[in-house]
Every structure is written in C-alpha cells, then in structure tokens.
Amino acid sequence: MTDHITRALTLSRRRMMALGLGALLAPSLDPRQALAQPVFADDPFQLGVAAGDPAPDGFVIWTRLAPDPLAIGHGMPARPVPVSWEVAEDEGFSRIAAQGEAVARPELAHAVHVEVDGLSPARTYHYRFTAGAERSLVGRARTTPAAGASLARARFGVVGCQHYEQGLYTAHRRLAQEDELDFVFCYGDYIYEGRSARVGNSGAGPQANQRQHVGQEIYSLDDYRRRYAQYKMDADLQASHAAAAWFVTWDDHEIDNNWAADLDQDGTDRAIFRLRQQSAMQAYYEHMPLRRSAFPAGPAMRLYRRADYGTLLRLNLLDTRQYRSDQACGGRWGVCDELERAEAEMLGSEQERFLFDSLSTSPARWNAIAQQVMVMDLDRDPGPGYMANPDSWGGYRAPRARLLRHIRDRGVLNPVVLTGDEHQNYAGELHLDGRHPEGRAIATEFVGTSITSGGDGVDQQPHMAKLLAANPQLKFNNAQRGYLLCDVTAERWETAFRVLDKVSAPGGTISTRARLAVPAGETGVVPA
Fold first, then answer.
1. Cα distance between residue 210 and residue 199, in whole Å
2. How far apart are the first and last CA of the chain?
3. Domain boundaries for CATH 3.60.21.70 within the chain
4. β-strand pairing of 510-519 with 457-458
5. What residue ranges in 42-182 does DSSP mark as E strands?
6. 71 CB contacts (<8 Å, ≥6 apart)?
7. 3-142 sits in which CATH class?
8. Residues 6+ positions from 296 with CB-CB distance below 8 Å
9. Cα 97 to chain center, whole Å?
10. Cβ neighbours around 489 below 10 Å, total
11. DSSP state of 159
C-alpha cells in the first residue's frame, strides 16, 4: 500500500494540554479571531477521513474533528470551527484540482461533509483536511465515468457486518491493499448497538470477544456518537476508507436489531422508538460520507439512490429497513400464513417504484441491486419441513415476487443482487419459488460474509452441507470472515470470495476461497 493512507506532510503537533480549544474560544475573545487559528489539545483527526457517493464530476469528502473522541463533547468547544480541504491530482498535492473551507459545526458533532465538484470523470484524486496546524490523513477517491461513456471494467469491494467486539478489522486492511478499486459498497451493520460483553456467540458457540464496546446499549445521540467514534478510531478501518470512495447504506444494528419501519422487536412504544431512530440517524449521517440529499429529517433519511459506471454497470442502492412491514411469524424462523400476506412491503411503494423505474430504463450492461438481506428464499430446515427467515426477503413473499417478476417481464439486462446480513458467504440463483425452482433463473445473488461478526468462523458450518442439498438454487457457501471483490466486464461478472484464516489475532492471512462468475446473458453461477 502506498503512502496515501499515511499521514502526509504532517505539521508539528501543538499538544498544549494546558490550553485547549475551550480556553482559546473563551467568550471574551472575538469569535472570528478565535476560530481563525484553533489550537487543539490533541490530534483532531483521530477518526480518519472518508469519501463517498462518487459522481462523474466529484464526490463527498468527510472528516470529523474529535481530539478526545470518547468523551462527551469529544474534546471540542460548542462553537463552529473552520476546516480547509484540498483535492489534488497527485499524492504529493503539487497539482491542486479543488480546494476550499468548510465549517465543522457542533450541531453535527463537528463533522464535515464537502460535496466536491468540477473534477474530471473516471479519474483518481487525493484529498486531505487541515484545521489549525493539524493535518489529516490523505484519502483517495475515483470519480465515475461520464454519463454514457464506454467502460471496459469496474472493480469494487463489498463489506459489512463489522461487530467491533468479535474480531479485528484485518479484512479492511487487506481490502485497502487490493489493486486500486473503483469503489466499495458497504451493505450495513457498520456498528452494533449492544452493551459491552466479554463473551459473545459465534457459529462455534460461546467465544471470548477480542475487545469490548465502551458503555451499555446505546440509545441517545451521545451514545451513538461514542460508538461510531470507537469503531472509527480503528486504523484498519481508516485505511479501508482512505483507499477508495464508499457507497454506504445501513441494515439493522445501526439502530437496533431487526428493526422494521418504526417498530423495534421489544414492544417499545412507537413514539419512543422514533426518538431512538432520530438519534441513531443523525449519528449515522454525522459519520458517513453522504450527500446533503441524505440529511436526516427527524426519524427519517433517504438512503436509496443509484450510480452509473458508464454503460457497463448501474448500481441501485436500497434501504430494506425503513419502509418495510413488520416481520412475519412474530419474527421467529419457521412457516406461517403471514409469509404470503399480499399487503407486505419490503421497500415501500415509493422506493419500489424508484427501483423498478431504474431497472426498466437502465442503459447498463449489468444491473446491480445493492442491498442488505437475502433474496434467495432458502429452506432453512434441511429436513422434511420448511423454515423461512422472516427477516429476509423470504419472509416478504409478495414484494419479493413483484421484484422478480419485474426483472423477468421487463427483460432487465444481467441482474445481480449484492447482499450481506448472514455472516456467511453464499452464491445462488433467484427463482419465484426457491422450493420449486423451474427453468431459467431470474437473477443471480452474491451474499458477502462479515468483516468480524461471528468470530473466526469455519470453512463450512456442519449443517450447511445438508442445507445446500435441500436448496438446489444455492450453489456455494462458506462461513469465514472477509469481503467480496467484484470484477465486472462486458463479458462477465466475476466475484472473488476473499476470506481470512482468523480475526481473533493480528496477522490474519487473506486468500480466495472461491471465484465464481456469471457470463453476460446468463443467470447461472459458474466457476471463474
């Protein structure tokens, strides 16, 4: 990995523990004079930098000032602070492409979101921030191709489910060391909301956690801010963000396990739960490289959107939490009449129309649906009975059928679904009824494992061989930690399942467990 993820041209630290920002910005001083030359008691860029939502002319760049990240107030005064930024064509910042000044405001925990524009399409840039005498890490991001441009190849990573307590973020470090990526898609579970625990559950039973959360289960805005800060202080995660621009969306643990619309799974009064959602959504925005279009409005924010990589790839990013109906069967794995309820919603009517229109009008050779929960309606019981996961699309059979029929009947070109949530790797084919797959599959699905959730894992859990036999549409399964690496050309989509031998100790070795492909014009999974 080159020096773009190291601190570039770092100026001398002014670690004035006796004179922090609080003294500097005392009310007796003129605010503009005080803010012009802030002096920090410690490094204000301890949470790193990030870029996101690339477009042909730019991207978002993000940082957050936090000299004392885990403290209430994060070591900052309740005052706005100016932050300058630079985007350059080269790593040494000798060719500046754009620059300016943003304001880190206390209302947003001194986070900065700069929507950089005026850049050239399909080009790699480097960016950094400066506040006072302190300079941030250097990040790298690549703009998307111009609209309608021909593109020979797109290469990107797929990550998520990164429970801080259950392992080290070695997978993020390995992803940062991959050959230059166009982008990274994060399908969610960026943080986990639970209290500190010394022992957690994994596929192999109870397992000692590698590190602990700070504090109890999180509910307030300050709680969520500290949890994000604890995660973002990890150097491997910072390296992954600095290596490429991310497209982010959430799953459930950014707010609460298995939440659906304004319902949690504990019977909390809906009005009370909306207060928790409001805090969680603000903290999510504060810590993600999102555009202003995602700015939260109370307990709501829009995360579904799309991005085009020329005429090669359309990326449809979805939110399968905020608009869905409650889980069927009381949220318990099994079978019940509610699985077939006609009124069930997974995406909500507005997001569903957005997706269907995007798929129908796409000019792209490949159409990716980048979302959170499994679309394959697997029979989770390899015995004579049937068991559905009601939190997945298999628990929402009516909207699932609408989606698959739309893809089939509108002739959507080369549809591929990207999924997380399961803490295992899967590859399979999508049929209207996976219990009775007939004829040609409608689409292909690749499910990425977790970064850490579930601990070290194993090559395959004991019951999964039986599950594979009971589900002919399922073609591959693995239960190690890691990420997906997708290589897309006009001729085929190739997914490498990159896995680690361990996350329980430093030095995990990365390898490719399987490399599977979908030839253009087909929906079957074949060895690459």
1. 9
2. 27
3. 156-322+415-527
4. unpaired
5. 49-55, 58-64, 81-88, 96-104, 111-116, 124-131, 134-135, 139-142, 153-159
6. none
7. mainly beta
8. 278, 281, 282, 284, 285
9. 28
10. 17
11. E
Tokens 């005026």 appear where? 118
Q: Which tokens in the block code for residue 241?
A: 């963000």
Residue 417 belongs to what H/E stretch? strand 415-419
Do the Cβ atoms of 83 and 106 come closer than 8 Å?
Answer: no
Place of tokens 């599977």: 516
Contacts of 217 (CB under 8 A, 6+ apart): 193, 194, 195
CA distance 258 to 393: 13
Tell me if residue 157 falls in helix, strand or coil: strand
DSSP 326: P
Question: Minimal CA–CA distance to 213: which of 226, 201, 222?
Answer: 226
Q: What is the pLDDT along the chain (528 residues), one digit of tens a residue?
A: 444 333 333 322 333 332 233 333 333 334 444 455 788 999 999 999 999 999 999 999 999 999 999 999 999 999 999 999 999 999 999 999 999 999 999 999 999 999 999 999 999 999 999 999 999 999 999 999 999 999 999 999 999 999 999 999 999 999 999 998 999 999 999 999 999 998 876 666 787 888 999 999 999 999 999 999 999 999 999 999 999 999 999 999 999 999 999 999 899 999 999 999 999 999 999 999 999 999 999 999 999 999 999 999 999 999 999 999 999 999 999 999 999 999 999 999 999 999 999 999 999 999 999 999 999 999 999 888 899 999 999 999 999 999 999 999 999 999 999 999 999 999 999 999 998 888 899 999 999 999 999 999 999 999 999 999 999 999 999 999 999 999 999 999 999 999 999 999 999 999 999 999 999 999 999 999
Q: Distance (Å, rounded) from C-alpha 320 to C-alpha 325? A: 10
In sequence order, what are the beta bridge partners of 426? 447, 477
**CATH architecture of the region 156-322+415-527:** 4-Layer Sandwich (3.60)
Q: Which residues pair with 305 in a beta bridge?
A: 317
Type and span of the H or E element at 488:
strand 482-489
pTM above 0.85, yes or no: yes
Alpha-carbon gap, residue 181 to 210, rounded angstroms: 29
What are the start and end residues of each CATH 2.60.40.380 domain in the chain?
A: 3-142
